[in-house]
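Journal club side-thread
Mid-discussion, someone asked how the predicted structure for our own chain would compare to the paper's figures. Pasting it here so we can look after the session.
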Amino acid sequence: HNPDVSLMFNKNKFRAMIGWGIQFMTQDNFSLTNQDLLRQNFINIAPTANIAYHFSKSGSVSIFYNGRSQQPSIQQLQPVPDNSNPLYIQLGNPDLKPSFFHNINLHARKSGGKNYWFAGLNFNSTQKQIVNETYFDDVGRQVSKPVNVNGNYGFSGNLQYSFTVKRKEWTLRMNLGSNGHFNRNTSFINQLRVAARSFSLSESVGMNFTYKEVLSIVPAFNIRFNKT
């Protein structure tokens, strides 16, 4: 059961909403090996908010926020090693905490007549994200154990523009696009904490030419740059 409460506001060109959800969860993990019962209680929250301004009939600017939590799975909490593969031992971690995800989106769009454009920005961050810490023990076996880490986040943005030219017998539509991403992720290599940063930028140009219902030409060009 996940009850939530939301408040909404709507006046003239403004629209806004704020909400809050909550979930109570109890999880039992019984080990047949040592007859231990691991009982854990979680309180998960899910806040949401958005605000929008419509500056014209076909144009608007909006901001959205979503937050959610995610509790560890029973397999991740299990304190008994999984040695079904003797060269790869998987350990559980009963001290794991729930992860919490933040996501913010900004959108702006405008259309009218023959032109359309859209711009979007996104930011996401995770607190106490669960990642696998992997290392080699004294006898050379690989051991994997889930742990909580902070400092993982990402940015992304995209810009799109198109315009259309219509005549009696043919239609031409041009599309331009630009996208960018940046992400920072934490991992562990042989118990050494490593922060990986990745960056991506792509540009695109496209055209859609249609003559009556006889001919359609749709060329497109894309270029992408990646760095990690």
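Post-session note: The helical segments are 74-77.
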